[in-house]
Amino acid sequence: MILGYLTHLLILIGIYLILALSLQLAVGFAGLLNLGHIAFFCIGAYTSALLALKGFPFWLCFLLGGFLAMLFGFLLSFPTNKLKGDYLALATMGFSFVIYAIVLNWTSLTRGPLGLPGIPRPTLFGISFSDNFSFLILTTAVALISYLIIKKITTSPFGKVLEAVRDDELATKVLGKNTFKIKTYALGISAFFAGIAGSLYAHYITFIDPTSFTLLELIPVLCIVIIGGLASLKGTVLATIILVLLPEPLRFIGFPSSIIGPARQMIYALILLLILLYKPKGFYGKVELE
Amino acid sequence: MRVEKNNQEKSMNKTTKIISLLVCIGILITGIWLGTVKKSNKEERETIKIGAIFPLTGNAAKKGEYESQGALMAVEEINSQGGINGRKIELLIEDSGTDPKKGISAFRKLVEMDKVCCLIGALSSVGMPLKGLIEKNKIPTIWVSGHPDFLTGTKYIFRNLPTSAQFVEALSNFIYYQLKLSKIGILYMNDDYGVSLKNEFKKIFPGTILFEERYDKDGKDFRTQLIKIKEKNPQVIFIGGYGTATGILIKQLREMKVTAQLCGPIGIAQADTKKTAGSAIKGVIYPEFIDDSKEEVKKFKEKYKAKYKQEPGVDSFLGYNSVKLLAYGIEKSDLNSELIVETLSNLKNFKSATGMLNIKNKEVQYEITIKKIE
User: Fold this and answer.
1) CB B365 within 8 A of CB B357
2) Which one in A192, B166, B202, B219 has a CA-CA gap of 20 to 30 Å to B320?
3) Homologous superfamily, domain B47-162+294-367
4) Cβ-based contacts under 8 A for chains A and B
């Protein structure tokens, strides 16, 4: 009965893949080092969970989770419009703290630190996705569609302009492109996909509380984006699979129980370091982080 | 940011492929190898496997350390006395890192690969998403969690931590029946914990409640609020809070010469509250479920110190008790999960590291004593 274990890991890969691809769009293609990405994930998860608990159908919760996150993505792009690099990273990090504080303190809506228990598993067109295997199919389908859409965006003329903004914003402006609009769209689309990943997460885990959406949770996703290589979707897929699966074999190494936690973390970190030492741009990276 | 040249990219791709392939193969081989090696081991079939999911990394790591040390101590003790019906116990500890996703991975691994018969664990945020899985797999579980919804709709789960309702009940009985004081005022912190304490207290206390005032979690000056309170002249003031703000509140109460007996939850005896309140905290009463004056507790502390070279925390006691309770259930019911649950549900006068234990409504009932801060 290893199947349930494997299914769980594959679902996690699916959810992380959507999240990482959406972050890749912002960081890799648009050059916006967005540390507020986890807040979009959080907004998607909470919106979807709260609506589902009120009895709304899954497809509506799922899409609204995405769209509300998108709205916040647009909103975030206004104050951060003129910021670049480290400054943008700091400002967006502030955004993630704000959302975390709201979720934690708006107790009448989100129940604060008590979290939201009993989020129902989705049903779509009369089909229930209550068992893990069918949920895996749903996640895979959503991940695949997300991949194709993001692929389409990045290879389209819009995607080329996006990369131009990343490489030289001034030059793009000189060519007559409205870079603010382009960056806003990129952030909005990226937020939408983070939101739907959040929705899937909430309905899979069936319990969410604010601790799942701290800045710390973003670090593995950022690792995936960087190790996969900036501006490479193929690399993101590969890195997602490797980084989600990597801690699992470590569970089977028989460490003495007194050092079990730290020892695994050290090995995990060591492997990441080795990869970055030999592949400073990640697996398929085309550009370097500035 | 600059686009690299094409030929360089190609050579990069090659090493990428090799590295990623090697990592994948490594993961597969170690996984399969270690999985099969464990299964073919004969001795393992004889042991009784208990799974444990503790936060060994992350911001609750200390809690996890205490829990696992306590649990391991119990396992060692049972095994040195010949195990359960001649079979040794093996405790398989997994890390949840305070993350619900990792908690589920750990659960799947323990239940599906290691085939554990019972489970112990800690933290509400990890336990809540596992509820459904535990019920589905029918794994008798003892969990350290204070979440009010933790036991709703479950059959196989037991809670191994006194709830705030139990603490408040003990405190209110002590004030009303032992101290014979009936005019009380409530001050509570404006967070979840404070509000739930106030609600519990209002529900239980038989005397008259003169006022309910809330105070800010980050407040520094409560004097204007306290003038009003002094006029009402309560015999006792219940302070539902913890941390620095609560310490300041107590200090200012005493500065304003409010002489009422002060009482509070277990959090009021925390180090930070004591530090900010200074000498004003003397005489405050609070409920406690680990009584230092008990023989069992003293013995446990000594043994623990000798083994781990540090003082046990509250969670060390809880981890130890979790294993002991499960071991008792297994001994009486021979690994049948339904029977284990039944045995544990009706458990009475069980000898543990903290004194006698009973289980009522799937909640481990600790003997709560009222302590005074000296």
Assistant:
1) yes
2) B166
3) Response regulator (3.40.50.2300)
4) 134
